[in-house]
Every structure is written in structure tokens, then in C-alpha cells.
Amino acid sequence: MQRVIPFQLPEIERQEADVVSGEATPISSALRTLNLAAEGLAQVAHDIAGPLSAAFDEAVGRLKGVDGRVIVTGIGKSGHVAQKIAATFASTGTPAFFVHPSEASHGDLGMITKSDIIVAFSWSGETVELKPIITYSRRFAVPLIAVTSQANSALGKQADVVLQLPRVKEACPHGLAPTTSTTIQLALGDSLAIALLDARGFTAHDFKIFHPGGSLGANLKYVSDVMHQNERMPLIESGASMADALVAITAKSFGCVGVTDADGKLIGVITDGDLRRHMGPDLLLASVNDVMTAKPKTIAPTLLASAALELINSSRITALFVVDKQKPVGIVHVHDLLRVGVA
Q1: What are the tens digits of pLDDT across the range 222-233?
Q2: Of 81, 175, 234, 249, which one's alpha carbon is 20 to 30 angstroms from that of 191?
Q3: Which CATH number fits domain 52-202: 3.40.50.10490, 3.30.420.270, 3.90.550.10, 3.90.1150.10?
Q4: Pairing of the two strands 144-148 and 117-121
Q5: Has this prediction a pTM greater than 0.85?
Q6: Domain boundaries defined on the chain
Q7: What is the pLDDT of residues 251-270, one digit of tens each?
């Protein structure tokens, strides 16, 4: 069995009585909360690697095989977690939405079809508001996955798959406010969504389809979306003079020029740095082949724009030629990437 190493936060020496009496400092209270959350997460990881592994595999398999949508439900704090998990499923390629248990009994059950699957979050498993959805799922044979701490609860007994969460200590000193319990519910839900993403082979290209806006959408753009093409590319043929190269560099305003051979393949690049290194009275009479940097860094049009920016920054350059089968098909400048919001 895989060994799980829990994340270790600073030890808290203050006794629980101090926390209840209000004598704990804000820092000690915060660290206690985080320690309890870390312990809960470590226990979930241990269970998924061990006693929960079969149920987890079955849950992912059922979710992958569903023809319809994933219906995620829960009430109270578990409901808030369920809403987030539904959004995570939807954004990673699994059609999903949240159904409020109370609204379900007032008509929203009609949103659930026989081709769907239900994932129900309930810490106790005895949530009264879930009864209509549980009954509906059994009546119409809609698969039901329960995420609960009580496998023998009303929810757990009716579910096709039970993902039993470990009993954990809440960070609330009175043991009343859901804290550690909601943290591990969220973690298990995210684990389901990402395991399903991996099982389906969901790619960055697929991710882009569901995240076209904002900085995330910008980072998921491809180089082909932002590169300059055709006559905008600063190119010159092998054997040309540096005088012609300087004209091309100035005209295109990228601070560089690409050198191509007779087959149109990129064989070198001349940058401002190359000009400085070869500066002299005979520079304009020299051949571009004598000044260029051979075998320059290039990128493919299918590379993510965020990866292109990382390469530009790490290489301390300002522009990269985009090549396909060794032939230049575009050029991308750092300003192009920043302008579209890549970070």
C-alpha cells in the first residue's frame, strides 16, 4: 500500500481549554485549524490508497460511463461544497449541475433523467431534505454515489457506491461549525473530478473550450492564435548581405531577422545581440551567414502561449520564430503575449 506522508504544520502547545475559553491567540487558533485540516486530508489520502480504493475506482468508472449528466446535490455546508464540485466537473469536460434538495421536491426532480448519475454530499447521511432525491433515484434506477461519513446512514444504505469520509475533529472548539469536515468533502470531490479528467484524457485544448475568458483563457491560447504570419515575418535568404538584413530588421520591428535556406527552412536568426557582437566597419559588407546564430530556439504553433512566454523569459529574448517542419510559419513577440493577457 502506498505510504502517505502527511503535511506537517507547526505544533500547537496550547490546550483546547484555552481555545474554548478564548485565551488562544489568533495565530495559535489559525494553526490549530490548519493542523486539523491537514490531519483530515492525510486520513482521506490514506483511505483512498487503502480501504476506499475499490469504491473510488468504481465511482470514477460509473461517472466515466454515464451517458447523461452528473447531478450533484447536498444541503447546508455540504450543499455549498456540492455546488463547487458541480462547477469543477462542468469545467473539466463532464456535463454537470447542482440540484438543490429542497427545490427538487418542488419540481426540479424533472431535471434528472434515467441517463444521469447523482453524487450526493451529506456528512451525516441522514439529511431529511435529500429523501426525495434518494427515493427518485431508486424508483427510476438513477445511479447514486454517496459522499458521507456514515456508510450505514439512510443515504449510504441506498447508494450504489459509498465514498465514506473519515470521522474528523472540527476546528470549531465547540465541534459545531463544519470546518475540517467540509475541507475533506471538498478534497474528495476535487479528487473525483480530476481522476475523471485523467481517465477521459481531457487535454489543455479541451480545457480552453470551457474557459475562453479571463486570464485563464489567455493562458490557454495557442501560439498560432497570437503569432504574426506571412509578410509580417522578418525573413531573409541565406547568402544575403548584412545591409539587406538591417533593412529587414528595421522594417518589421521585431528586433531580429530569420535566415532561410533554398528550401525555405529556418537555419539561423540575427538579433540585436548578434549585431553588437559583430559590430565593425565591414559589418554591412558581411554575409548574413557569418553573423547569424545557427540553430536558433524555435517553437511550434501548437504550443500554449503561456509556455512560449516562459521560454522567452527564461532565454532572455524578446521574440521567437514559429516553425512547422523546420519552415517558419510565424513569429511571436513578448509584447503579443502580454497584450492578450498571458501571465
Answers
A1: 888 889 999 899
A2: 175
A3: 3.40.50.10490
A4: parallel
A5: no
A6: 52-202, 223-339
A7: 988 989 999 999 999 999 99
